[in-house]
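Notes for week 9. Today we move from apo structures to complexes. The key idea is that a small molecule is not decoration. When we ask for a structure prediction with NAP present, the ligand SMILES becomes part of the input, just like the chain. The input block below holds both the sequence and the ligand string. Read it once before you look at the output, and try to guess where the molecule might sit.
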Amino acid sequence: MSKLITVFGATGQQGGSVIRTILQDASLSQDFKIRGITRDISKPAAQALAQQGVEIKAADMSSKESLAEALKGSHSVFLVTTPDWGNAGSDAELVHGKNVADAAKETGVQHLIFSSLLNVTEASGGKLTHVPHFDHKAKVEQYIRSIGVPATFVLPGYFMANYTVSGILRKGDDGVYNLAYPVGRDAQFPLVDIASDMGKYVATALKSRSDVLGSQILAAADYYSPSHILAEFEEVTGKKTQFVQVDSDTYKSFIPGPMGEEMLENHLFIENPGYYNGKSLKESNDLLKKHGYQPTSWREFLEKSKASL
Ligand SMILES: NC(=O)c1ccc[n+]([C@@H]2O[C@H](COP(=O)([O-])OP(=O)(O)OC[C@H]3O[C@@H](n4cnc5c(N)ncnc54)[C@H](OP(=O)(O)O)[C@@H]3O)[C@@H](O)[C@H]2O)c1
């Protein structure tokens, strides 16, 4: 009999990637039935999943009652939490993560796969204390470990789509694409094609549960510097680029409100001590390849996306 996996963020990038990968995988699609969670079952993204045979269930991570119902009967769970952007001081993401962890404990979930990140405050030795969307995820990870839910932590890298969809690479009036960062052109960004590859790392965790329980899997194809990112962008798209290193105040002025400080410190962290605190990606990508998956390179991502630029 197939097991049930409940996927949070089913209508979003990460959960959507997990569902697509399972559906496309010959063995996982036999091993698992999928339940996708959304706050609004009527939205088109939820309806599209229902048409592919995914059970769609309404739940809100802020409601413990809805979570108990959502997790009922689940063998495995994929959990992605999202920050309460624009609401400075909010601990909503931490509360959401703990709520799901508690529900997983209560319902006897066998494998919780959490989309985690590092604790910036700790890894920077207390120098960078304004990156709650990292710190909260690390605290959720710590909480999951402390209550003893069998779990694996998949830490997504910096999204490639940040450059093409979220507008970090900005086209100027002269047609040149500008990348302005508060870090140098040699800083190391671990890039991931999130919509395509998050599912591959999670599928790898599902396929090697007993080997990966308690460990962190780093979900990124490779480390890329801004110089490398722009050089390949030029080669693939034929468009001109320019890198500008700006000072902290100038960078913050691009992003109003508390998010400016948060994104500034997030990028300073990437430069020093590093997005994954200097850890190599080799072990995670070797595991991925062992299970038949290949991570998408920045060049491959650009080839796919260049038509929409
Ligand atoms: N940008 C980067 O480079 C980067 C790097 C690493 C990690 N991240 C992290 O990635 C996360 C975003 O992932 P994503 O891009 O997959 O998100 P996304 O596409 O924005 O989707 C968010 C999902 O979360 C669900 N959701 C939100 N609030 C919920 C709640 N209260 N209860 C239940 N479900 C809820 C939404 O479902 P419904 O709306 O259907 O309810 C939606 O499916 C963020 O935490 C971010 O910090 C980003």
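The domain at 3-308 is CATH 3.40.50.720 (Rossmann fold).
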